Amino acid sequence: MNYESAAQALSSFDKRVEQMRAYSHAMGVMALDASTAAPRLSAEGRGRTYAVLSQVRYELMADPENGALLAYLESHEAELSQIQKRAVQLFRRQYEQLRRIPMAEYVDYEVLLNDSQAKWEEAKNKADFSIFQPYLEKIVGYNRKFAVYYDAEKAPYDALLNEYERGLTMETLDKFFGALKDALVPLIAKVKAAPAIDSSFLSRFYPASQQEKLSYLLMDALDIDKDRCTLAETEHPFTTEFNNHDVRITTHYYENALASSMYSVIHEGGHAIYELDCDDRYNYTLLSGGVSMGIHESQSRFYENILGRSRPFLSYLFPKVKELFPEQLQDVDEELFYRAVNKAEPSLVRTEADELTYCMHIIIRYELEKRLLDGSLAVRDLPEAWNRLYRDYLGIDVPNDKAGCLQDSHWSNGLIGYFPSYALGSAYGAQMLACMERDLGDIWPRVSQGDLSHVRSWLKEHIHKYASLYEPDELFRRACGEFDPKYYIDYLEEKYSRLYNLK
Amino acid sequence: MNYESAAQALSSFDKRVEQMRAYSHAMGVMALDASTAAPRLSAEGRGRTYAVLSQVRYELMADPENGALLAYLESHEAELSQIQKRAVQLFRRQYEQLRRIPMAEYVDYEVLLNDSQAKWEEAKNKADFSIFQPYLEKIVGYNRKFAVYYDAEKAPYDALLNEYERGLTMETLDKFFGALKDALVPLIAKVKAAPAIDSSFLSRFYPASQQEKLSYLLMDALDIDKDRCTLAETEHPFTTEFNNHDVRITTHYYENALASSMYSVIHEGGHAIYELDCDDRYNYTLLSGGVSMGIHESQSRFYENILGRSRPFLSYLFPKVKELFPEQLQDVDEELFYRAVNKAEPSLVRTEADELTYCMHIIIRYELEKRLLDGSLAVRDLPEAWNRLYRDYLGIDVPNDKAGCLQDSHWSNGLIGYFPSYALGSAYGAQMLACMERDLGDIWPRVSQGDLSHVRSWLKEHIHKYASLYEPDELFRRACGEFDPKYYIDYLEEKYSRLYNLK
């Protein structure tokens, strides 16, 4: 069709965006329901519905008319606002990427992910990788294909990394992870040699119903608006959002691990705050929501660790936790609690790892993903390769695949290339802390009173409110200047040297 | 388009049905999410998505090509199976009805219902009818319009009744309710004159977390497969289903009313069993699921009252309930429990009414709906009219609209003409019991052992397995012969005469 004016083209553009959004919204709610509430045997019906809706969504997104519309708007760029220009750019990117994927593959992949989610849960519960293996093989196969569609000139894994953090490459990550390993390996060794912290009280019996009360207490402590964000339970904690008035976080209660759900809620709470504090103007547009996984994880890991595991925050929080669990924490004081939740020790499960060893979990996943994508590792050999890396890098034996390569939900969700953003986000967060302290001075006295508003305001002003207006690297640069992993390394060295009285 | 064969036309038919089903499924999950998990302020985004999807669904359903396709299949009826013939009939009915509603009205109505749901909840929580009034005015307005579209020759309320129970009219209901009133009014008077039953122990403090355990115990007692049916909490209990592998029931816990959630779970469990026991062959077709609200309520009210409030079932169940609430039920025995949950007493809330006075609640709603639809009652005068009827028919004063005309979620969901099916269903159920006892002999000894399988098998064989294959009146006639309210009246007279030692 021919467009007569930018205004007319923009009206067509908005209508198309609104349609695609509606399908993503509906399928997103169905996926959320599948993880939180749907019965186990509901997968077949949901798969049939996904097949119909994802085909329509594909047709909407890959419609050749979009190409003409985008070309018209691009040639009238001078008449567009900054937001409109960015929306056109994001639509163009999505369109170019999607139209290269044949529709049948796209739809099959959506249905596959629905089935895989159920199979992964079953495999994890039974600690039996063989149940999930054929599904993961297909997922990896599709991702290798899609990577070529995305950018045939890039190595497949680079093409996937680019999906989660624009511009991120194996070259960058090899350097970043190299610097981290150089600093962390000796630091971990020193910590190992120091007297261990006794955190055994964290494994006492903490009833799920009381932990649920703690979750709501934490949401209040983080000032999360419950009229715009609710909490549910899932096998694996996550955050999902539809707009800044509809955000969901989930957690998982383990009755013998107090810190597990507690820090999941704070982590997902950090994601939620990013989404809730996006400016209203971006709602229902392509600029809606956080811009990248790296920036998103910077917020979640900032809340979880830099704030949530800090001495000042815990001096505010601990008395409230003790009120909920007076018997279990009878012989525990603030200092012991602080030390226990920061105890560094090589462990099996990423989501429960301490800050110091956390990145080793990411490096392991990064190396495995690289090999799965370049074909040097077959999916069937994944458990063995996983277990070997845990022995080599963390010195521990993996007892079964539930605590091993089945622990995370990412791969069953098709998220290959996502994990590095956790490490990158952690490092972003440490640099943000330095910038925040440069701007605000000492942030901690107010934190120890339970007042986090200055921290949140800084993050909102520099990160959150922009939603997806800027590319992640530009957003970060505007907030903090050039990215430098030394802030993160310094942060970890200082924190753990003090905690373990290291020289 | 021209069809070349019945096979080709059927393939097009199936594809169209599958598409419509997918949209209904997605919007159904979104509605379920809205009631169970979504944050309060999510309504706007959901409304936008409904607007897009319901428009597409409308276009699919009202597509003029459907008319040609249906005509072709109707003229080749000899080549169709019984199931296919019925599917064509149901599609025709839906098509004829929908294509008369202008699309803009259809979409606006879907969006209105989404908004109304949130407003009704707010109004109920604040006991303030004025919040909900403008929404109910619009809902009634649309229903009056739609009734004319459905069947301009019928009185509007008859046209709506026909939606929930095909063929049901005010004439039939006036007779049925007349017979009920004739029998119940004197019976209620006798019960009122008899010594009252002390049920005060049911209002002790029963923590929601323990009541939740009771819910799962009840689902086990009813043998509800939790891999195909899950439980959630909502303001108002309901059942929703997508296919016989994906059924959801909800309840609401009141910590000072043990019987409330207990009988909600059994009631919704009855709905769920009907859906779960539909034959697999009907899944994903237009014949999927229970055939009418009247038949559905016959199942839910059968489980809730005829079984769930029976002495034999309670002799099995009570010891288990007592285990969950040993302190609260310390001084209570089986007989007292049985008498308390059957205590007949005019009360405010329909869902918690005893079997004897229940139908008076329905008759009140029926009379109000009739007047709302014929225009003799304005929505703004509804609270007053409601309160007057409660005084006239049940002799009680309604303290506020929360306990009055805001108590039910039906009207905010657009369900006008639904209520009579509860009374009809109750009467159907009593007649089914008589037929079952004729076929099986004394069903109660096994029930008192907690074995309900013979009852469920009878219902499955005569009702459930057929899904929507037969019209409700035919289904009932095949199972029980001609409908006769005397079974229900006899059942109530016998039960309450014994309970209250009446002559």
Provide structural commentary.
- 2 copies of one chain form a homodimer.
- Chain A is mainly alpha-helical and 503 residues long.
- The longest helix of chain A is centred in the N-terminal third of the chain and has 31 residues, at 6-36.
- In chain A, a hairpin with a 2-residue loop joins strand 2 and strand 3 (246-251).
- Chain A has helices spanning 6-36, 43-62, 64-74, 82-98, 103-126, 129-150, 156-164, 170-193, 208-221, 258-276, 293-307, 311-324, 334-341, 355-374, 382-394, 420-440, 444-448, 453-462, 472-480, 486-499; strands at 229-233, 239-243, 246-251.
- In chain A, helix 5 packs antiparallel against helix 6, helix 9 runs parallel beside helix 10 and helix 14 packs antiparallel against helix 15 (382-394).
- In chain A, 48% of the residues are buried.
- The N and C termini of chain A lie far apart (71 Å).
- The first copy, chain A, is built from 20 helices and 3 strands.
- Helix content of chain A is 64%, strand content 3%.
- In chain A, strands 1-3-2 form a 3-stranded mixed β-sheet, sandwiched between helices.
- At the A-B interface, helix 1, helix 2, strand 1 and strand 3 of A face helix 1, helix 2, strand 1 and strand 3 of B.
Explain the layout of strands and helices:
The structure is a homodimer of 503-residue chains.
Chain A: H1 6-36, H2 43-62, H3 64-74, H4 82-98, H5 103-126, H6 129-150, H7 156-164, H8 170-193, H9 208-221, E1 229-233, E2 239-243, E3 246-251, H10 258-276, H11 293-307, H12 311-324, H13 334-341, H14 355-374, H15 382-394, H16 420-440, H17 444-448, H18 453-462, H19 472-480, H20 486-499
Parallel strand pairs in A: 1-3
Antiparallel strand pairs in A: 2-3
